[in-house]
Please model this.
Amino acid sequence: MPRPRACRPNICAGSASVSLVTSVLRRCGSPTSTGPAKQVASIGLRAESDRVVLSYRCRVGGGEWQEVQEGVPIVRIACRFGGRRPYFICPGAVNGIACARRVVKLYGPVRYFLCRRCYRLAHASQSESAWHRALRRENKIRMRLGGEPGRASSFPDRPKGMWRRTYARLHDTVGPTKPC
Ligand SMILES: [Zn+2]
Model:
């Protein structure tokens, strides 16, 4: 079995996103190479004949870390001056309809690597739901402590009989709540 050559993808890890460009495919050995996913930065890559398989861990809205394995189809289109250029086929879906755009760059991970358009839509909806989840959690804690829901009122004092440690934990849970 041919071993995949070491590949160092052009992954730009910013605070908001990570992007993956097709140039990584040229450095991943022959298009038919298979083998164990190679760990590069925090993303494993395995190049196959018609797709690249990404494996990584991601976390959405402060939730649990999740293992993700994502197969992204690739097409190779003939260039005008010879050679063939690889493109990703976006694996995203909008309103249940597959995106399937041909792109050179994918953005992520919100959870999956997606084209720019799908990434924006997914990021917006996930951020919004994370924000609402955090608000619900915060309101529940406020009411458990005998306070009012909502951020207009100050955080309730420690009720009589509650352990300081428990109160501190609840306070810390509410503390970092911010839109993400
Ligand atoms: Zn897309």
